[in-house]
Amino acid sequence: MWRSSLEVFDLASGSVQVVFRTERLIEAPNWHPEGWFLVNGEGRLWRVDPRAPALRPIATGELQRCNNDHGFLPDGRIVFSCHDDRGAGIHVLDRDGPRELRLPRPSWWHGAHGRRICYAAARGDRVVRIAIMGLDRQVERILTPGRAHHDGPDFSACGRFIWFNSDATGHAQIWRMGAEGDDPAPVFRDDSVNWFPHPSPCGRHVLYLAYPPGTQGHPRDMDVALWLMDTQGENRRPVVHLFGGQGTINVPCWAPDGGAFAFMRYR
């Protein structure tokens, strides 16, 4: 009996392929340029190679409370969020082991472009906002002031825009703004509760997770759908209906060529 199913949707054929199933709870697949997948589960990070599917642990030292906010920097290094008593911090896995970035906590990594990362940040008032930071100077910039909940940021392929979800209009919808925080606006509006937009590396598509109307937050174990649209918010259509939610596509999950994406289905 499996609990978690790592699967791939191919855009050209519209077909779904099962890569790996396990009785354990694993989450949030990232697709490495060399073809393997990064997931988390039980506080650890794991590598899944589709040629010999299995959970192979990634060494993170004493950091054993890793969550589903992880991925790759453009140079291929793993970047991830991990909890302790101070909240979530963002770490980069260097050759000598994990190194924490100089950021306030809690911070949850979500995307990278060039030498910049974008992430969700809860500061003194605990409101979650979108922030960016350059890896060289490590100076934080909060891009979304106000009282609304902003989450799930990801850079466009060109790096000029940040996609995110926001409940500023009443419930979570898909938004886009300039990479410096300029002109934030919803891309469309509907009754679904929409989270985690991920633009494709080819610059043609945006994938997001749609919850039923009235859903609070982004819970796990619900009937949800994965939707695709173009970068103008047009041609929206559901492509996968599944039992999932939290852990399905929290972080960037596209194949490097933009022809497929990975996701988690749950039982």
UniProtKB/TrEMBL annotation:
Domain of life assignment: Bacteria
Protein's recorded name: Biopolymer transporter Tol
